[in-house]
Amino acid sequence: MIKFLIEKEFKQLLRNSFLPKMIFIFPCMIMILMPWAANLEIKNINLNIVDNDHSVLSRRLVDKIGASTYFRTTALPDTYDEGLEGVEVGTADIILEIPRDFEKDWVHGESPRLLIAANAVNGTKGGLGSSYLSSIISDYTRELQAESPSHGVHSGRALPKVSITTQNLFNPNLNYKLFMVPALMVMLLTMICGFLPALNVVGEKEAGTIEQINVTPVGKFTFILAKLIPYWLIGYIVLTICFFLAWLLYGILPAGHFLTIYLFSTVFLLVVSGFGLVISNHSATLQQAMFVMWFFMLILILMSGLFTPIHSMPQWAQFIAALNPLKYFVEVMRTIYLRGGSFTDLLPQLGTLFVFAVFFNLWAVKSYRKSS
């Protein structure tokens, strides 16, 4: 019986001239565009530099900042007020003002003061931009100290220098795409294997074809399983396409095993498809189902750690995130891709996802009303 129901679902899907194309074009577009668009790295910050000193040291500092990939020197105004006009019209994000006696103060052993004024309308851009610029200036100061040994002498003894070596674990090149791509795969599986089965069921409700199945001896569990299996298979195909595109476009391969990803994907597909069916069972129209799905999708995606770390959220938001199944699968994907996590390392996430899968699918079976 279930064989024929699955065959019916595939035929019904393939009769739609638009949906099969969209199922495979959508993941390709997400994998191609989103890693570039959903990039929280701050680069190409527009900088106005007001050099009141015009000395050798100040010009070296300007050149050092200009060599950074984080900043783009848009103007060299003569006064601070002229630089501020650039911020007001939107052509500059940060102003760096170098004082008139910058080199003179340094040569005489005094500490010159630089002014950094950042446009904080975008707090993230202003804060990180100021931090990057301060780091470059600090590095430049250390260079000057190394060139002037007299500045490093105190009480007749040379001050010891602390050498710092930074090692970036798991992501040595700080490649943001390596952080985003695994999470985008989670979002794709959620939308394809959560949205489509739900909309399929509600679409049959509106068309009246579901009534024909309700008068047959097909059980609730068999009917729901037949609705889900085709989209599970599509989910595996989409996931495999994402693996290929991640390797082809970005050179990203998991440090762990593909089989571990497929195993956890199976449990996650049970979670999102069961959740989608719960919504479809409680929705009377297609518009209602779409609105409710989008409502939950926005919350689930934003609270999953896809864009922002969950530990940076307020305590109440972290509590809500703990009830979000996407959070656990995002952790799984990033752990396998970046750190090479094994099956035993991810047992807590597996147990939590399994609980979600049982809960949503039992709810879906119980809430499906079959009248005979």
How is this structure best described in words?
This protein has 372 residues and is an alpha/beta fold. The chain contains 14 helices and six strands. Strands 2-1-3-4 form a four-stranded mixed beta sheet, with helices on both faces. Helix 7 (176-207) packs antiparallel against helix 13. The two termini are 18 Å apart.
Concise structural overview:
This protein has 372 residues and is of the alpha/beta class. The protein contains 14 helices and 6 strands.
Write the layout of secondary structure elements.
Elements: H1 2-15, H2 19-37, E1 45-51, H3 56-66, E2 71-75, H4 80-89, E3 94-98, H5 102-107, E4 115-118, H6 123-147, E5 153-154, E6 157-158, H7 176-207, H8 210-214, H9 220-250, H10 258-281, H11 286-302, H12 315-321, H13 325-339, H14 347-367
Parallel strand pairs: 1-2, 1-3
Antiparallel strand pairs: 3-4, 5-6
Helix pairs in contact: 1-9, 2-7, 2-9, 7-9, 7-10, 7-11, 7-13, 9-10, 10-13, 10-14, 13-14
Query: What would the principal axes of the Cα set say about the shape?
Result: elongated
Number of helical segments with 4 or more residues: 14
Low-confidence parts, pLDDT < 50 over ≥5 residues?
A: 151-159
Whole-number radius of gyration? 28 Å
Helix/strand order, N-terminal first: HHEHEHEHEHEEHHHHHHHH
The portion of residues assigned to helices is 55-70%
Largest sheet: 4 strands, mixed
* Beta-strand share of residues: 5-15%
- The strands making up the biggest β-sheet line up spatially as 2-1-3-4
Oligomer: single chain
Report the mean per-residue pLDDT as an integer. 85
Structural class: alpha/beta
